UniProtKB/TrEMBL annotation:
The chain crosses the membrane at residues 31-51, 100-120, 132-151, 184-207, 243-267, 274-295. Keywords: Membrane, Transmembrane, Transmembrane helix. The lineage of its organism: Bacteria, Bacillati, Bacillota, Bacilli, Bacillales. SUPFAM superfamilies: MFS general substrate transporter. It comes from the Bacteria. The keyword Translocase does not apply. InterPro entries: MFS_trans_sf. The keyword Ribosomal protein does not apply. This is Sporulation integral membrane protein YlbJ.
């Protein structure tokens, strides 16, 4: 019942504010094409291609499998970590329990996005982009180590995943990688455009109903719904503030519903536990800005 009320309420808002909804969707599409697609697509294709290429044998050593997941998943941008972990579960390289913790740790924006877009274009310094990227990975690695210790404590003899015999070996891994990458890109584009439009409509509604600060309200709402739009709004309203780099760090760490929906949809294909992912987002929102403060 509550879901129906929310859905119909949003439909009414979109009908009453078609121009604002259109502007939000247009802004989301522009951000996707200019800030996400060029950085995300090549890495998704290469990662999928590598994961779909037949291997002689999977390593039974935990650290090798975890290292592989972290390297492939954490440096490709959202939601490559989720794609990598779920693909490794399908290949029999990870158990479902392991995938829950790895999904939480192997979740970071791509280096090209942070250094190229955030660092160079927003911060005006690639060095600042490198420091933000380092802050994100330091927070992720600390969380990863803690969760692995917890995993080892609660399960002394960790299950070694075996190759699933029913998995069909691809005869054309590149073509399969292109196909699956297309599905991921469509998912990313859909969520970015929808939540950007939704954020715009809700911002306009709140501003017309209550007397609130435009910059703060718009930035918070857009950051909650769509990370890239939130980053753009923070740049428009807080660029001259001394807190600007830390606001950007917090927004990127929070991710927004758009990215969370991408991760949830992908993780659902192998029923990956999502509780560790939830705690990792809270951890990152708190620690990444603090680490960045000391690095800057």
């Amino acid at each position: 019942m509550i879901n129906l009320i929310i859905i119909w309420g949003l439909i009414v808002l979109f009908i009453l504010q078609p121009g604002i909804a259109h502007d939000g969707a247009e802004a989301g599409a522009a951000l996707f094409v200019n800030a996400l697609l060029p950085y995300l697509l090549p890495y998704i294709i290469l990662t999928q291609w590598l994961l779909k290429t037949p291997m002689k044998s999977n390593s039974k050593r935990n650290w090798k499998r975890y290292f592989k997941a972290y390297v492939l998943g954490s440096f490709g941008g959202f939601p490559v970590g989720a794609v990598t972990v779920t693909e490794m579960v399908k290949n029999g390289e990870l158990t479902r329990r392991e995938s829950g913790y790895l999904l939480a740790a192997c979740h970071a924006p791509g280096p090209m996005f942070i250094i190229g877009f955030v660092g160079t274009e927003l911060f005006g310094s690639s060095i600042a982009g490198w420091k933000l990227l380092a802050s994100i990975h330091i927070a992720n690695i600390i969380f990863f180590i803690f969760t692995l210790l917890l995993l080892k404590k609660t399960q002394p003899k960790m299950e070694i995943p075996q190759q699933v015999s029913k998995i069909k070996v691809s005869n054309s891994p590149l073509l399969d990688a292109l196909k699956d990458s297309t599905n991921v890109i469509v998912l990313v584009a859909t969520t970015v455009i929808f939540f950007s439009s939704l954020g715009n409509v809700l911002t306009s509604t709140i501003l017309s109903t209550f007397t609130v600060d435009l910059g703060i309200t718009k930035t918070i709402l857009l950051a909650i719904f769509e990370m890239t739009s939130g980053v753009q709004s923070a740049t428009d309203h807080f660029y001259t503030s001394k807190l600007f780099p830390f606001i950007i760090a917090a927004i990127i760490s929070m991710n927004g519903l758009s990215i969370h929906m991408q991760v949830f949809v992908i993780a659902k294909t192998v029923n990956t536990p999502l509780l560790p992912y939830f705690f990792s987002r809270l951890w990152s929102i708190i620690t990444v800005p603090v680490i960045l403060y000391f690095l800057l």
